Structures
1.
Amino acid sequence: MANLATDRWSRRDLLGLEGLTADEILAVLDTADEYFPFATGVEPAPQTLQGRTVLNLILEDSTRTRTSFTLAAERLGGRVIQFHADTSSMAHKRETLLDTARNLEAMGLDAIVIRHAERGTPHRVAEAVACPVVSAGDDAHEHPTQALSDLLALRHHVGRLDGLTVAISGDVRHSRVARSNLYGLTALGSRVVFVGPDLFLQGLDDITVEAETATDFDAVLPECDAIMMLRVQFERHEGVDLDLADYRRRYQLTAERLARAKADAPVLHPGPVNRGTELADEVTDGPRSLILHQVTCGVAVRMAALALCIAAAERA
Ligand code: NCD
């Protein structure tokens, strides 16, 4: 059996970490810890989602997130329907996304997981359907379950999530992971410093909490309890003039640069890693990297998010 923190979670949807209270975030993380022993599928998991059907409406490239939601739901006994945009009526018959979602819901769904290239789409789908909606990332806006995975991995390593200083370094501008982690860590009482060249610290006006920024990574590192690195999102760089050699020189996290941080400060990265760009291999594969642990935490967090939202919808 797993203990769900249903007394601290009453939301039908998980669309972002913006506006969540510390108690709500901890409710998901505590529930994820209950599921963590079952995250890799070695131990048979409690069948919390037996008889439930989850639709994976993943409309943007995804490896980790699609697989992670699928394994999370299936290990808890649920069934997952994979939506494929390229062979759908949406692609060839011009059905709108909201109509597609409503029609699929009419066949009986218990939750929709959605990733979309347009900001706010998960919110629009949530308004259009009656079942729970869990965001798997929208544009550069939010990616709540990724940030919760990062927070769980960090809590496993450091033991707490309050009073920490966390550098989030790299392509902050294009990162939904950076935004969701900022909201989460701020709500929990930690300090976030966004680090990168000016080019990557622009375009943050959508953020609704105070965001500290710094361009000198080496100067920030000694204060950090954890360092979260971001992928340089080349696919979103049309019109962005990045000097890659200069970027590597000033921001790539090498073993030498990492030596400036506190001795036990872990390194996180949501994946996929651009090896040799934001991270040197010796750090990616080194003893302070939590990268693969974050991935395992991701399954537990998605188990918790689906179970809590479905339970809340049922009570409403
Ligand atoms: C992130 C994403 O898609 O936002 N990856 C992920 O979900 N694990 C970050 C990225 O693509 O760099």
2.
Amino acid sequence: MSMEQNIAQILITEEQIKNRIRELGEVLTAEYADKDPVIVGVLKGVVVFYADMIREIRVPCQLDFMWLSSYAGTNSTGSLLVRQDLKTDIRGRHVLILEDIFDTGTSLDFTVRHLQEKGPASIKICTLLDKPERRRPGITLQADYVGFTIPNAFVVGYGLDYDEKYRNLPYVGILKPEVYEK
Ligand code: 5GP
Ligand code: MG
């Protein structure tokens, strides 16, 4: 059974993603010239976007990663923990967080608070996808750079999974509801 046949609709094509990343790259290259940023990725949904995005940010930089997990097995509880922390000392450094999707905001809010405690010079957020309709009340955090604002639908591909599958689809698609309602 192919992955493609479980996709109801391609929301953002490979080409649209590529073009948008190039545009964001120009903006981020200007923003971070001479700032020697630390570019932080939150695993693992971000890996595909991360790999493409960093190659369009044409400044000297360092790469590092964090891995979060939730306390319980279920999501959206708001209780997260750091499963793997940064290896880089970010005190006094300019930090750029790359994210796959800004949904309820729970994980980005947690990530920013966690990194803030380390005393960086600045923290900015660049998210490929933003689903503002889903934001949890009380989250005032905003992304500094957004690839695409999308409607409230569950999407997969380009790093995003359903049950750890579909991350390797080259586009962002909407999963057929019958796939996860079974
Ligand atoms: P948050 O709700 O904390 O903003 O997002 C937490 C995580 O939920 C994201 O990093 C992502 O892994 C996952 N997530 C949120 N919305 C979607 C979606 O539409 N599709 C997929 N595959 N994952 C999502
Ligand atoms: Mg996920």
